[in-house]
């Protein structure tokens, strides 16, 4: 299964991941960055009054391959 990992910095400067399952393959940098900027600008995600997705860091696809043994 292919996933898209979006990495942000919190308001405290810690790294925070948002992982999306079942994503479209081949998204370009501009498309992903625009979506991440919208997430960051929305200021919807907080935990204990700390903004979780304040600054965009990077994004990457994660491809998990399973090999059945028996």
From TrEMBL:
Highest taxon listed in the record's lineage: Bacteria
Protein name, per record: DUF2922 domain-containing protein
Source species of the chain: Companilactobacillus farciminis
């Amino acid at each position: 299964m292919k996933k898209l990992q979006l990495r942000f910095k919190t308001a405290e400067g810690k790294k925070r991941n948002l992982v999306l399952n079942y994503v479209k393959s081949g998204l370009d940098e501009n498309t992903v960055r625009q979506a991440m900027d919208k997430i960051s600008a929305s200021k919807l995600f907080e935990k204990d009054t700390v903004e979780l997705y304040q600054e965009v860091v990077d994004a990457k696809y994660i491809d998990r391959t399973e090999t059945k043994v028996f």
